[in-house]
Records
---
Amino acid sequence: MNNKNRRDRKQNDSFKQLCPVSGKCGGCNWIDKPYEEQLRAKEKWFQELMKLYCKPEPAIAMEEPAHYRNKVHAVFGEDRKHNTISGIYEAGTHRIVPVDSCLIENQKADEIIVSIRGLMKSFKMRAYNEDTGYGLLRHVLIRTGHVTGQIMVVLVLSSPVMPSKNNFVKALLKLHPEITTIVVNVNNRSTSMVLGDKEQVIYGKGYIEDVLCGKTFRISPKSFYQVNPVQTEKLYKKALEYAGLTGKEMVVDAYCGTGTIGMIASDGAKQVIGVELNGDAVRDARNNAKKNGIKNIQFYQNDAGKFLVEMAEQEAKVDVVMMDPPRSGSSEEFLQSVLRMKPEKVVYISCNPETLVRDLKILTKRDYKVTKCVGVDMFPFTDSLEAVCLLEKMGIRKSKIYSRTDVVI
Ligand code: SAH
């Protein structure tokens, strides 16, 4: 065993001791694999998936692969003796496995959750019981800004009435003055969704901000934001490198969420158009553009497929399509519209390489070749891998383009 493997194994042994619930939780199903081994396994899997298209670059690893999750969720409940417990649902059940600390979650967030549980006793606040419907606190969600250090605590309650609210806030802030905002979210339905529709800000601004690639982004309780900020910067930098913008391009940022990729690309582009289905995310995206003083970007709330069909019908000229669909991948109408519009480049960012290759099959039937791809390890200690692919229109930069037959793996 070389030094690195020895260090990894030692680190993992200590992780195992640190996490007595690893067998039940399922959150980090690769806890017992040395990090180097995890990376090689992910690379091998991705290489196999991509074998018809392109030989991947070496995977982008996380230097310190622990405590990376900036969003931490704990479910609250009671044990048989009516003691308050907090933790995670045992995989596939509604049984709560008590957890005080987790090796992939932000440590401060875990500490705050333990403090809230402690305060509940002195405030006589009961945790919600799913069977009886009795009790107040259902979940706690904590989001942290990696660069700004801002912390948002979301208390998910079964009822809008929170007795001794002000004193509870005071007591929590005394223990954790680093908290910058506290929001009450009311969820009185029996649903597997954590957050309900009603929100009340009880301390601070109701959102936090974080910085990615030099731009500031607002994060509300419900908006999508990548959970591993350190690796997200590397992912976005790779996507931009693949896009190779020169300042003259018309760029589409499809499935844009709160507009992160498009805004980071905007400095190097003539114009950026972002499209996203979720209205809250589009609102955040517009605010983010304003806050960063970006003028050459517009956001549209629409289904990305429908939007691209319209663009293709209007014969819009697009140079680069950057797309980052959800796990289910993109749609036939989106992909066919890309083929009709013929951008020079498509940068496909995927959190599910299996749907990525399904979509690549359509895009590479004619006109496009995958010229570069790489896996980015956004989720150490799990079997998930994020991927970035560059597709280029055939006829340009021929020497760099792989054909299906000349890739040797
Ligand atoms: N690019 C963003 C978000 C990626 S997550 C980032 O890096 O932060 C995928 C996004 O696709 C989510 O914001 C989701 O709301 C959005 N989405 C899902 N289906 C969509 C559709 N049919 N049309 C447009 N956006 C969609």
---
Amino acid sequence: MKKCSHFFDFLISHAKIYGFIFPSSEIYGGLNAIYDYGPHGVELKNNIKEFWWKSMTQIHENIVGVDSSILMHSNVWHASGHVDQFNELLIENKDSNKRYRPEILIQEYVDKNFLNDPKKKEKTLSRLSKSLKKRDLLDIKILIDELCICDPVFKRKNWTEIRHFNMMFKIKNGNEKDLYLRPETAQGIFSNFQNIIRSNRMKIPFGIAQIGKSFRNEIIARKFIFRMREFEQMEMQFFILPEEEMKWYEYWKKNRLKWHLELNSEDNKKSYKLCDHDHLAHYASVGADIKFHFPFGFQEIEGIHSRRDFDLKNHEFFSKKKLRIFELDRNYIPYVIETSLGLDRLFLAIFSSSLKKEKLKNGKIRIVLKLPYYLSPIKAAIFPLVRKDGLPEIAKKIFNDIRGYHRLVYDEKESIGKLYRRQDAIGTPFCFTVDYNTIKTDTVTIRYRDNMEQKRIHIKEISKIIEQETGLRKILKNLSNFR
Ligand code: GAP
């Protein structure tokens, strides 16, 4: 299916209809850029998390995990530079009161209007890039005026000056200092650095991994779950000898790209690319993005940065605690290579590359979510062919016998054809159907999601097939080979 806005609308609607993602607080009109994960969404999300977590902490014997709090001492965010430097550029339209990021306004204008004039496009974007580098906000404003850019929705040109806008959510904490909702999980790793070294006897090089919520007051939050104000990150900070910075930076860039390619199937290899960062974050000395071909184009899914000793050095200064490695002949602040992956973006990438509309031989269209089996929210479905003659009882017994081992569903609410279609749309790899032959032979039909083929197997084989085909074992083994 072509990646276009029509497909993207279809994807959003599919995610809602089949219980993957709902707009937050929908009964009150929703909340901009905040989403909830439904029954199938949370299963898929948990499977993705489990896979990432095991890839980090099980495959690498020198990476351990942590689960730090969302609210932290406000000095954490002064030390990390987020209070002063975690800013985006903001321009407001005085007539519509809508807020925009000026560089995105210009980029979108140029993409739309200079299609047939590549020279003009290049010249404009190069001027924008130079002004961004020099932080020349006045020139960016002049560019917007020269191009006569209007508010894309309300078509008005009455703009404010451009200013810096801090993206952290501040919360009032009575008489105490203001608190912030964390904008990255990484600081919970840095602030626990000494605790983890001591309690787990870590030796350089080693990593600390964390999965958790982050919050950013995005100026423009859109494209479904791609850019949200509340989202989840899967981050790993890898602590190294300073002189080995580039060795480990290159290692993690390669390793993380391979991980994505392993996760998403063969025909998706062309959907990923690794690009160096144009504009580095305030903490990074060098950085690269892994980009994925989303329905709206190539966009960042994961960042790999060298943060050098930026964070630990600043935390040493602010906390007056020693955050360093003590070895026999040397004590030093280690450098850090960070891998930072957006869980929701990965969810969207996997969901969009798995969702297919297929034309069947009979001319009908089938919608199928071809997720990797180990990520499927439901591993198998058990149906009776008809709701009589004892078939539901046999199917229920099979379901009850193995539900403790696998995530299954039992369903008898519709005709068998409709039951298959529903499981296809959810991404369930196997359906097992109890029919009249089951009574005589203890066999059931297994129906495969991807090619819709069916064959008979013994009831005893059901659990083994699910176990062998849907577990993480095979992919984790592949990953440990290219560590
Ligand atoms: N600790 C480094 C860091 O946070 P980042 O590039 O700002 O780096 C890392 O974010 C990843 O987090 C991004 O590659 C993206 O996948 C995800 N992310 C960032 N902002 C997001 C947002 N508003 N909504 C969803 N995911 C987001």
